[in-house]
Amino acid sequence: MYVGLKMLRDFVKVTPQTLVKDAQKLLDNSTLWMLLVVNDAGRLVGYVRKEDISAAMPSLMTSLEKHELNYLMSKLTVEKIYRTDIKTVSPETEIEGAADMMFEMNLAGLAVVDAEGELIGYINRNVMLDVLAEEMGYREGGSRLTLEVEDRSGVLYEVAGVIANMKISIISTGTFFYNGRRIVVVRIDTEDPSAVAAALRERGYKLVAPEDFRGEWT
Question: Quick one: which of 180, 125, 127, 186 has its CA closest to 158?
């Protein structure tokens, strides 16, 4: 999956000339933590965060009269407070690469730009969570089987072969590492996975459930 196929295309943008008070309203009316800032040509120049706007407000609210404060707020623009260290990715970027970048740099979002540097989209943590749920087949129903397997090539192919021989479709697969153990998660298109579970056990595979890990979180 690529960033360009999952990016948000309809999202709120502001310009350096946008009043800070208007940017605050936009953030208050959305679930975004920041607004992307574009210039008059529509090119990305930076971003402004909720924290930046909040920090700008108290600095004016000293001993000013209300009319003085209102006057200053009518002049204060995003240009005075926006940040330029915005991180970008291309639409061709693998979605997992973008997710890893967000994790490593503790980012809540990435701007998506084309080869010319033009802003064409935006991805955030909500997008990544949606991709995770979709990739694991959660919304398609079925049943989930979790196996602890040897960390060797061909294991997933073997497990898939057992399921395929039973004429049951695989909705999704995922592999994870936990404390040096390889965990395989398979979602299959059946409401009763007991027959598949039995077939896998007969072939020596270890199926695990929450109770097998209970000691890890208690």
Answer: 186
CA angle 193–194–197, rounded 5-degree value: 85
3-state DSSP helix/strand/coil % of the chain, to nearest 5: 40, 30, 35
Return the structure tokens found at 100.
């890893």
Ramachandran sector of residue 182 (left: φ over 0; alpha: ψ -120 to 50; beta: rest): beta
Q: Rounded to whole angstroms, how far apart are CA atoms 183 and 33?
A: 34
The alpha carbon torsion through 127, 129, 131, 132 (nearest 10 deg) reads: 170
Where is 72: in which H helix or E strand?
A: helix 66-73
* Of the candidates 18, 47, 39, 41, the residue with the CA atom closest to the CA atom of residue 111: 47
Per-residue pLDDT of the chain (218 residues; tens, 9 = 90+): 899 999 998 888 899 999 988 888 888 887 777 889 998 888 889 998 888 888 876 554 455 555 555 656 667 889 988 999 889 999 999 999 999 999 999 887 899 999 988 889 999 888 999 999 999 999 999 999 999 998 888 999 999 999 999 999 999 999 998 888 899 999 999 999 999 999 999 999 999 999 888 888 77
Find tokens 């208050």 and name the residue.
Answer: 28
Please give the structure tokens belonging to residue 130.
Answer: 């949606």
| Rounded alpha-carbon distances, angstroms, from residue 212 to 185, 199, 209, 216 | 15, 20, 6, 9
